[in-house]
Here is the input.
Amino acid sequence: MKNFNLTKCLVASAVAGGLSLAPNGAQAAVSSNDLAIIGADLTAKNGSEFFSWIALNDIAAGEVLYFTDSSYKSGGFEVKEGLFEYTVQAGGISAGTVIKVDNFNPPSGYTSPLNSAYHLNASIDFTTSGDQLLIFQDNDISDTAGFTALWAVNLNTDNWTFPGPESGQSWSELYPGLTEGVNALALGLGDQTGDDSEGARFVLPDSYGGNFVGTADELRALIQNEANWEKLAETSTSGGFNESADWVIEGIGNVTIIPEPSSTSLLFLGALGCLLRRKRS
Here is the structure.
């Protein structure tokens, strides 16, 4: 019988688990894989405006997220509008948590900071001729040089191309660091001026029966698919559309995120296998 080398087996288990044998470093900040925007209602038919987002992975307490409807053009924020700052509360945000934000009466912890280079108004106030929404992080909001875009939606047209000489708060180019169709969705009704949607929300496909149980990657792929989004035509604000104040969250139902196996658990299972093999050898 061949000799069993326990050390080699453990090293192979560590590599398979994606672990470095060096000491662990600090945890990374929030990434675009950790969250997604899942709804925005620009109509103000219920006396306010709303947007919604979801945590796809656990987000640690103390992380600071910013939300803005300021547009980005020609390498900078051309039209500065509203801004919310949110510091994740004690205990963090669990994967699968859906958050609805009322622009005119925001939840506890959402504030409009002073002396920010990102906004002119105190808080976000959507325009019904199309608008955009960005989630980002920045260690210093007194200037816009160091921001990290995480996720964005654009309700003006079905693309992120700025229409030539026009300007205004309704239009935005793609925020740097984002990829269209991945973490930046263009949810307008067409590619021309006037093709804006008055609202858009992610709707879980019928096959899920109103409840999602799966991995973050699976849910992210569903959110990235524009076919799973419902959009409001501009006539909705003057027509008979009677969306509720919860419209931006009603499409997703109940969410249970199944965590992927961690590197630590993979290492443990690998080490257990090594010990069992050693016992049998």
